[in-house]
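Box 3.1. Reading complex inputs
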Amino acid sequence: MTRTTADVTFLRGYNQALVMAVGRTARTFERSTVVDATGLTPQAVSKVIARLTADGLIRSAGVRRPGIGKPAVVYELVPDSRYAIGAHVARRTLRLVLVDLAGTVHHSTVSPLAGDFTPEHLLDALRVGIDAITAGTELRSRLTGVGIGMIGPLDHAHGLVRDAHGLRHWHDVPLRELAEAHLGLPVHLDKDVTAGITAEAWRHGATFGDAALIMVESGIGAGFRLGGAAHRGAHTNAGEFGHTVVDLDGPRCVCGRHGCLEVVHLRATEAGDVPRAARVLAVGVVNLLQTLDLAHVVLAGADLLRHAEVYRAAVERAVRTDVPRADWLTPTVTLSSLGADVIAAGAAMQVLDQRYGIPDLAPGAPPTIVRQSVVGAR
Amino acid sequence: MTRTTADVTFLRGYNQALVMAVGRTARTFERSTVVDATGLTPQAVSKVIARLTADGLIRSAGVRRPGIGKPAVVYELVPDSRYAIGAHVARRTLRLVLVDLAGTVHHSTVSPLAGDFTPEHLLDALRVGIDAITAGTELRSRLTGVGIGMIGPLDHAHGLVRDAHGLRHWHDVPLRELAEAHLGLPVHLDKDVTAGITAEAWRHGATFGDAALIMVESGIGAGFRLGGAAHRGAHTNAGEFGHTVVDLDGPRCVCGRHGCLEVVHLRATEAGDVPRAARVLAVGVVNLLQTLDLAHVVLAGADLLRHAEVYRAAVERAVRTDVPRADWLTPTVTLSSLGADVIAAGAAMQVLDQRYGIPDLAPGAPPTIVRQSVVGAR
DNA sequence: GCGAATTTAGCAACAGCGTTGCGTAATAGG
DNA sequence: CCTATTACGCAACGCTGTTGCTAAATTCGC
């Protein structure tokens, strides 16, 4: 029941974010564009545009002459007005990217992480990496924050790493707090796949309401965007897609069950049978489509991208043939447009989203127990 | 990009709905309860309560003496101030229920539908049924609308039945419009399983953020509530859970694939092996948990409830043993508390939700193409 | 050329929301 | 009977987006 209360400042942020969303999607736009897209009155849009211009987030980019009448002022996002750092923490590497307000990736660096890295190691590596990116520039003042995409399980609502698979030293680490203190910047912590799907959604705009990012990279995971928002699940643990059973009598998986997608896929890969591995993954993808009715599927991950076209073709084929009523149900199947940077870039975009995106009225905060009132005795 | 514009009337409706949600959850409450639960200021709550009282939706129910100080006024929902009709349209039956503002089911009637019923047949059956329920009462004036839960595929956003499985005469029928015209009441059309999970969410309150309703009744389907909202998917077709492959080399399913959950389950049922059927379903449920990280699983459907305890135990057992780190991940597994009325009751609650629930800022309307502005020539 | 039509943009007054400040009512305890 | 305490609402306020209307910049027709 702990929903954010809706006051007038919410209106401000919300409508402002609508205009920013138009700016990100269209690159150049004018007042009437925003009016059509949002339903706000022209006067309201004028006010919002004035505020955004004052903040330096958008700027005029000339005029358009639609024929008769006074020319319309054309606006555009100012990409370099704000930046965010994105970090992808994998088991042995730390990838850092710099993303601007328009979603463009500017820097991308990879540094190794020691096999048994501790929170302190990571914090130092983050600081060093961020300093290297911002050194010699006055970019620091325009940094909105740092997004961290990491393997789970973790607790997004509290910024806690609960038990990163395969990493000792990472049990109930309050990484968000630690990093905020260590870096002096707002930090957003999320599961890697969720960050990844955010990146794809940014690039594709508002049409990306129901979509999944399929990630094959030392395991199989999925990030979801459902109903226009990231889906993380009750414990930020959604996306353990590799551990869904597709073969009841299949080989035993590390998770204890038999015939998980991941282990069946692994067997095919180990046998060198990439086409079969791709077909297995495709079965899993169609399972997702049947369950969730997604409009877009994005394929990513180092192990997949190594045979990108084989996988893409196999999934596309399965989607076309195995889902009934294909005429109006067929989702798009694409490869990640950001390659190895997806996770890190998405983490950065989440930070920008938090500050300049559509505010969320119902955050995942634990619901309050509503206490019952009993009428007292006379 | 077509999100509803946020104006001040949105604030009004939103905060009003927050208070109503507290009323539904707590049954009796006072001003301070709402303040704690919503974060609104006491003064704002006073204003909202005054409005709701004027509308007859809540009323004072005495006072509570917390010890020292002026006693607090205790409020309660007025259950009989508003009603909604819920309809569950199955292949051969029409079930109608009357639900009040508190979510209590008052009437429940089942009437047969001809094997090949047409839209006209259904409309007439609805009218006759609703008239029978409201006859002789002045309940009609307090009817908020009619909710229809139906088998898919359908288009929730446009109120269209696209191709109801196994029903001729049902291709692209604009049922919502037709029914609104025929009944003279607002109508809400949704997929059966989605209506069902709404009913469960109403009964369980705000904690029901990520949950699924598993429905076994001439096929296997699932309704989802994710992130506190119903998940319908890109084409209102989410929940075709029975057609996910769990056995790569399994028997051929009617959908064309091999080893779908539904066909594997069916084989076990046909063999009279209910425990095995239950175990198969449990595998599917665990798959869902891995994928979506749900906190609650509700079991329903005539075929399941016939052996309710076998299924519940099997699913509960699988959830406990097959999902790793069971300590903080274990979801609750329950049987539907509304029995055969779930779908119809949920459909009715959706109508009440639409009118008195938390407004949705991002409806599933098709996103507008944002046209790009080009700076005109000098 | 020059006025009329047309389109864009903004100023000013307004209505409605939650918030703040403060006064008032109702109780228990001394 | 007074005081501390708690509940509650009136009034003024600040902030939204909205409405009404005026000004500016352009094309088109004569």
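In summary: DSSP finds twelve helices and 16 strands in chain A.
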